[in-house]
Design a protein that fits this description.
The protein is an alpha+beta fold. It is about 25% helix and about 40% strand.
C-alpha cells in the first residue's frame, strides 16, 4: 500500500493541504539553480494512503504536492492537469489555489 505524508492546515478562509511521497520527506531536489527542499515542517504530518490524500486534496483551497505517487494520484482524481506539473530533479511538483 502506498503511503504519503500529508499535512492539513485550516483557517477561517482556507484549507491548505501539503502532500509528498514518503521517501521524499526531508530531501532537497536540485534542478539547475533551483533548490527545493521537501521540508518536514511543511509536508510532514500524517502518513496516509492515496485515497485519504485525495479526499483532503478535494477539500483544499490551496494545495502543494511533490512526488510521483502523490502527483499521479491528484492527476488521476482530476485535480491536476499534467501540463501544469513542474519537474525538479525528475520529481513532479504541482500546486494550486482555488479562489
Amino acid at each position: 500500500m502506498t503511503k504519503l505524508y500529508i499535512r492539513v492546515r485550516e483557517t477561517f478562509d482556507h484549507v491548505l493541504v501539503s502532500a509528498c511521497d514518503k521517501e521524499l520527506l526531508g530531501k532537497t531536489l536540485v534542478e539547475g539553480d533551483l533548490e527545493f527542499t521537501v521540508n518536514p515542517e511543511f509536508y510532514g504530518g500524517e502518513l496516509v494512503d492515496t485515497s485519504t490524500c485525495v479526499k483532503h486534496l478535494k477539500n483544499a483551497t490551496v494545495a502543494n504536492m511533490v512526488g510521483k505517487k502523490t502527483v499521479k494520484a491528484a492527476i488521476k482524481a482530476g485535480l491536476v492537469h499534467e501540463a501544469a506539473v513542474l519537474y525538479i530533479e525528475g520529481e513532479p511538483h504541482a500546486q494550486w489555489v482555488r479562489l
